Amino acid sequence: MMGGYKRPASLTPAELVVQTSIRKRASAFVDARDDLETKIGRLSRRLNFLLTESELWRQKFVSFEEYAETLSAEAAELRAKIGKEQRESKRLSGLVQLTAHEKEELKHSGLFVFSSALRPVVTDLLMTILISDRACRHRGCASRSNDRAGANARGNGRDGA
């Protein structure tokens, strides 16, 4: 047989059983390996998905923590402002009560009647001063208007504007 096909030696029935058994085992091993590789691939994809999800949740948690810290700081600031406003409210309530009490005392002492009668007189006096100042300015009296300006700057005079 030149260059021809060499036929394998024939196997005994026991050898054929062993060969078939080995082939079945090899086929089962390859199938099991393929199943494991498929399962590993699925688990790997699932793990990657879970890692991505955990990173997203971690970022959300970090942003939530920052937001919570901001809200906490704002709450502390608002508590401080509320406390300040409450103190101011108490102070003003005290002043209102004190003013009301003093007003009652003035009513009973007769000075209230006097001050009520004095109010129109003071108003007329202020109007007279205002008219006088305007007339003086109109005429060019520098000394009179300067005296009034000095009094206004010191807080002693009234501004008629």
Question: Can you walk me through this structure?
Answer:
The chain has 161 residues and is an all-alpha fold. The chain folds into two domains: 67 residues; 52 residues. 86% of the residues lie in helices and 0% in strands. It has three helices and no strands. The N and C termini lie far apart (136 Å). 1% of the residues are buried.
> What's the quaternary structure here?
single chain
β-strand percent reads under 5%
What's the overall geometry?
rod-shaped
Distance between the termini: 136 Å
The main β sheet shows up as:
none
Radius of gyration using CA atoms only = 52 Å
Structural class: mainly alpha
- In helices, the fraction of residues equals over 70%
The number of domains:
2
Question: What series of H and E elements makes up the topology?
Answer: HHH
Enumerate how many helices there are, as a single number.
3
Mean of pLDDT: 84
- Total number of strands: 0
Low-confidence stretches: none
Summarize this, please?
With 161 residues, this protein is mainly alpha-helical. Helices cover 86% and strands 0% of the residues.
Please give the structural blueprint.
Elements: H1 13-109, H2 111-139, H3 142-154
Helix pairs in contact: 2-3
Q: What are its keywords?
A:
about 160 residues; mainly alpha; 2 domains
